[in-house]
Amino acid sequence: MLLLIVISLPYVIYRILKARNIPINGSLLLILPFTFTLIFYLGFYNYLLGIAIMLWMMHLITEQKGPVSKTAFLKLLSGALILYFTHLLPVLLLMLFTGVYLLFYFRKLSNPMKTASSVALAFLPALVFAIIFMSNRGVEGYQGKVNSVPPEQLFEWLYLGQPFIGLNGDQEQAGVFVLMVALLMAFVFTIFRNITTKPDTDSHIWLWMALVILVCYFIVPDGMASGGFISLRLLLLFYLFIVIYVLLNQRPAWMNAILGIAGIVASFYAFEYRNDVAKEQSNFADDFIEAASELPQRSVVLPLNYSGNWLHTNISNYMGAVPGIVVLDNYEAKLKEFPLVWKQNGVVDSLGNFGQSLNPTLTIEKYENLTGLEVTAITRFNYIPNKDDSISEATNQLLHEKFRLVKKINLTEIFIRR
């Protein structure tokens, strides 16, 4: 799955360039930074797959210069449905792109009304599904409300290239800065060249779409229709459309070389850091799996997480990979957007917010009364003793009275009921 995500986007853009007889050169390496992005590390895999499908569909749309053939109609129909079941946002953006394309090329089409009606008919089933989904879900975001990012934050993300900072801005910003400078230089050069020479290309449709997405970036809420992080998703697409616009135009060889170098620097500048982080997180996951292996079968495990690292929010869930272990923490079960639910309402809240709270108040009896199950084990991750913290002291007293420490694996402690 991950290989498919990493390969699909560069391949689709390569095909778009080849279809327009654009020479393939070093500037194509500008696509590399779009593979390992913050969106990728957040795990939005279906969205990333949807981007590749969406771009291919947009390519098919730009090939429609007259009445849509039966083969093209079936491609558009099936592609839109596949895209809908991949992710909702790309299919809506595809329809928006199609509207922009028909608006600008209406007079150039041999039979514009027939072309527009055929495309609309091909997209109709996906549109109906989208309307049904949004009407059932409502406008609230994944946190149960419509929320927006402050404008000053959006501007900061825009010039910092936030989607390209996968894990840590302090470690990765220098490489991203090189990319942003190179991309700005290429964009200004391409705009100036197109104004002065007015080449006969369809690249400006991608520029117009980039501007439409930029407007959406500033006005569309960050959380709505059960989705979240919409602003970052849109910002990533804005950069992507700018890159496609640049690649569809000719540049001097020296600029192609600069763009290629910028793409390589942005992709591999933080490679060693990201690789070290991945190894560290893998070791932590192994620790939890080993901890679960130390527990008796049919253990009901309460995980306590004292780490402030967002990568650790769900790390205790790896214990569920061991057969016979029930883990009383699940991010998806707390949110209505996912099909996984707790059997009892309010169960999660009785023990704090787990990953969202670095120091939850422990009320085991309340949880056991709700579930009818006894908590037989507790794991504690990244705990630092603090005698001035009354909540931690109360937790330590409970652990001392009702549980015993059986093993400590690096930062993970394992307690079993007495």
In words, what does this structure look like?
With 418 residues, the chain is of the alpha/beta class. 56% of the residues lie in helices and 8% in strands. It is built from 14 helices and six strands. The protein has helices spanning 2-19, 38-41, 45-62, 70-86, 88-105, 112-137, 151-160, 169-197, 203-219, 230-247, 253-268, 271-293, 364-371, 390-402; strands at 299-305, 325-327, 350-353, 377-381, 403-409, 412-417. Strand 5 and strand 6 form a beta hairpin. The longest helix has 29 residues, at 169-197. The protein is elongated and about 80 Å long. The protein starts with a helix and ends with a strand. The mean pLDDT is 86.
Mean of pLDDT: 86
The total number of structural domains is: 2
Q: How many helices in DSSP terms? A: 14
Percentage of β-strand residues: 5-15%
Could you estimate the helical fraction of the residues in percent? 55-70%
Rg result: 26 Å
Element string (H = helix, E = strand): HHHHHHHHHHHHEEEHEHEE
User: Main sheet, how many strands, which sense, barrel?
Assistant: 5 strands, mixed
Find the count of extended strands (DSSP E, 2+ residues): 6
Terminal Cα span: 44 Å
**What class, by secondary structure content?**
alpha/beta
Query: Low-confidence runs (pLDDT<50, min 5 residues)?
Result: none
How is the largest sheet built, in terms of strand order?
2-1-4-6-5
Shape: elongated
In summary, what is this structure?
The protein is an alpha/beta fold. The protein is 56% helix and 8% strand. It has helices at residues 2-19, 38-41, 45-62, 70-86, 88-105, 112-137, 151-160, 169-197, 203-219, 230-247, 253-268, 271-293, 364-371, 390-402, and strands at 299-305, 325-327, 350-353, 377-381, 403-409, 412-417.
